[in-house]
Amino acid sequence: MHTPTVGAPPHRPPNTRTVRVAAALAAPTVLLLVLVAISWAPLMSLDRGIADTTHRWAVADSGTTHAFRILTDWVWDPLTMRLLCAAAAVWLVWRYREWWLAIWLVVTCAVGTAVQQGLKAAVGRERPAWPDPVDSAHYAAFPSGHAMTATVVCGLLLWLLHLYGAGRVVTRIALAVSVVSVLGVGLTRIWLGVHWASDVVGGWLLGALAVALAVLAYEKWGAPRRT
């Protein structure tokens, strides 16, 4: 008997596990934010050491650097990720008439962007500066907007696939693409010398925390009650 790969979302799931995940993510996220804000010397030294090494590689290997610029500016760019989020929202409305879920998806992405920009302004961390830069970027450094946006969008889309019962093959492909995208975009930002390593880690942590809190909010207030 054939069963559809993706169907209507199941009944309201329990949120105990989501609470634990959010709590587990909150602690390292806040700790890293504080350490960056106070310019903790050991972290700053580690960031500088990583940045110096990767910048030497970037200058020496122009082919890889050019490929990374294409990936970070077009494939994994925050705008590309937000368009992917918008496409998923349109699909939810067109295919399933899930207006609330579509709004939740778009609002989560928008709030994530607002939090990201607010933290950049509040922390005001300077980006790495080089006499021979291979790329440039605007705004403050912490957290990495590329890393955070990719984490939020990929995390939300993976959760939606789980919610709608996507098949094993689809889920595995989506998970592999998401892992490559999230890790890849962070590494490209470090390689190109426009972010410190802790900026990228902060973007990953904040993005994951945003997804966990958004899922918790949906499970508490938005999930359909079904028997």
TrEMBL record:
Domain Phosphatidic acid phosphatase type 2/haloperoxidase residues, every copy: 101-215
Coiled coil: none
One Pfam family cited in the UniProt record for this chain: PAP2
Keyword terms of this UniProt record: Membrane, Transmembrane, Transmembrane helix
Gene3D superfamilies: Phosphatidic acid phosphatase type 2/haloperoxidase (1.20.144.10)
Transmembrane segments: 21-41, 74-94, 101-119, 139-161, 173-194, 200-218
Domain of life, per lineage: Bacteria
SMART domains recorded: acidPPc
Record's protein name: Phosphatase PAP2 family protein
Source organism (scientific name): Streptomyces heilongjiangensis
